[in-house]
Amino acid sequence: MARSSDDVPAWVDLALLPLVNLLAAFAIAAVVIAILGENPFKALWVLFYGALGYGEAIGFTLYYATNFIFTGLAVAVAFHAGLFNIGGEGQAYLGGLGCGLVGLALGGWPPAIVLPLAVLAAMLFGAAWAFIPGYLQAKRGSHIVITTIMFNFIAAALMTYLLVNVFIKPGQQSPESREFDPSSWMPFVHEVAARVGITIARSPLNMSVVVALVASVGVWVFLWRTRWGYALRVVGHNETAAVYGGIAPVRVVIGAMALSGALAGLVGVNAIMGDQHRLILNFTGGYGFVGIAVALMGRNHPVGICLAALLFGALYQGGAELSFDLPRLTKEVVVVIQGLIILFCGAFEGLFRPRLLALFRRAPAPAPAKA
Amino acid sequence: MGENGVLLLLMIDATVRVATPLVLAALAGLFAERSGVVDIGLEGKMLGASFAAAAVATVTGSPWLGLVAAVLVSMALSMVHAVACVTYNGNQVVSGMALNILMAGLAPTLAFAWFSQGGQTPMLGPGARFAPIVLPFAEALAPVPVLGAIYGRISGHNVLVYIAALSVPLVAFVLYRTRFGLRLRAVGENPQAVDTAGISVAGLRYRALLCNGVLCGLSGAYLSIAHGAGFVRDMTAGKGYLALAALIFGKWRPLPTLLACLLFAFTDALQARLQGAVLPGLGAIPVQAIQALPYVLTVLLLAGFVGKAMAPKAIGIPYVKER
Q: Given an 8 Å threshold on Cβ–Cβ distance, is A346 in contact with B98?
């Protein structure tokens, strides 16, 4: 996915281009909102205030952003290996199952043991769910996009089965497990802050956000500072060259998918151990798909992904407020914006990019001889 | 006729009802993918079309105008996909995903603002949706044993079911017996060769995606104004992806794709029947296992454990003309 753009200033490629794409997406969304008979600027203000205007809102925004960092990193790691992982949704679902099992089984154990185990279990289950499509792609040549789509549906069926038949609390109708013992909850940030004497508004924001930041740094180190990360990027760039360089693409592809799945699985830690404290249906709520937008917007770099995740976190939180203040809008407006961002940052990348790069080209490169 | 016979007929009816949108959408995907353009946007186009059909049918009271609107919306979305993937050489998977997400947001947003019913359209009256058609002689033949029962089953569906049934031989004919079909298949296998022959690769892919839009529009319209009576939130519920799975399971060929659709639809009908049923020797089969069956089968097929899936060779690769 990386492209050479040596002859333009880096900020054009890394900041201006995503910004222009973002503006195009917002402009079209504004037209839609205007057609529906609401004032787009008022909608933008409601979104902004609803996401960042007060303490609780900021907490929610950061909580959603945490999910999006995980799924964005998951998509990016696979992208760098030349793979398109659409299965973040299913991998996150399974990750939730992994840490949920730890929460159910080890209730009452000290948090210092349960929490690391929960994180590991979430990563392991997510990785396992991505390992199979990775293996099938590398060894049997089945297309990763289709397989991961299918695995999303299989994950949904599996989780419904488990919740309806296995984990359901006895004598209850709704398919959800019993609540975990509070010792296995990921501590809320407002609780941790209260312990050191800082008062923060209550929100689902929990210490998983720290895990997300650590994961971001970890992914950066892995991709750009280790041999494995180098091998992964070489395979993504040019598989033939990788083979000549003594890299086995099969192992890289499987490894990259497993890592990608592990990152997506961490959504389970944030949503299940950090917020719900029990296993429920559909807690992934499309986070896996948002990860695609986040990775595209963030140019597959951890810094960009964290910023894009913040943006989408704000959109998710602010969007929930839209319907209260603007009676003709629903929270799905945010999904429209999300779709438009994927369209402009991903599919229509070729629309603005060549024009923008031409504008900022440092020196008129000598035109290569063309036949 | 015994109880089992009645049950069988009910199962066939249910299978036909579920298979119709799958067949139309899978054939839509067939046009795109045989021309070398990946189409995971079937779901979004179906959803957009089903909303357009219901909205227009609600306002005008005419299912035919609803059908036209559905086809136009779906074709417009196909053209967005074409501009992104064929003209700008964008990533085809990303574009399809974008359409899916865009429509998942736009359809309920528009429905909410225009009809104020919480993201759905009002229930359609009998005149505003496609009613079952009783074929000629169906009643006269009814007393005839076997033949009457069979013909009775064929009769009594709505017009889109018959269109879906006819579209299979039609698509097969276009694909294998016309010049356009030959070129379409060629452009999906070896676009360089087609280009060398002086035929526009982009032009062919655009036309393939127009056909794709028409069929997808019919599929979406079926959901909201023929099978259902109005648009509801997330109406497609993964049917676009299931159609994609059927297309792959049918190895990108019309007749096997039809059979795959029927198989998937039959498992769906079976699943509704088998709620809590206990099979001898196997115990109770979880409903979810049957629901997941089409997806598992497709994965197994792709992995080469059930036959071999041979995708069009140039699929997913933008064609950049050499200069």
A: yes
Confidence of residue B85 (pLDDT cuts 50, 70, 90): very high
Contact A147 B299 (CB under 8 A): yes
**Whole-number Å distance between alpha carbons of A269 and B100:** 28
Q: State mean pLDDT over A27-47.
A: 91
Per-domain residue ranges of chain B: 3-302
**Residue keyed to tokens 């060779």:** B313
Q: What is the 3-state secondary structure (H, E, C) of A36-88?
A: CCCCHHHHHHHHHHHHHCCHHHHHHHHHHHHHHHHHHHHHHHHHHCCCCCCCH
B113 touches chain A (CB under 8 A): yes
For residue B209, give the nearest of B21, B30, B67 by alpha carbon: B30
Q: Which of A36, A328, A339 is the closest to B105 by Cβ? A: A339
Q: What's the pLDDT at A6?
A: 55
Q: What is the pLDDT of residues A291-319, one digit of tens each?
A: 998 998 898 999 999 999 999 999 999 98
Which residues of B fall within a CB distance of 8 Å from A161? 286, 288-289
Q: Which two tokens stand for residue B289?
A: 């296992």
* 3-state DSSP of A252-273: HHHHHHHHHHHHHHCHHHHHHH
> For residues A135 and A254, is the Cβ–Cβ distance under 8 A?
yes
B241 and A296 within 8 Å at the Cβ level: the answer is: no
The minimum CA-CA distance between B139 and chain A, rounded to whole Å, is: 43
Q: Which amino acid is at A209?
A: V
For domain B3-302, say whether CATH 2.60.450 is its number.
Answer: no
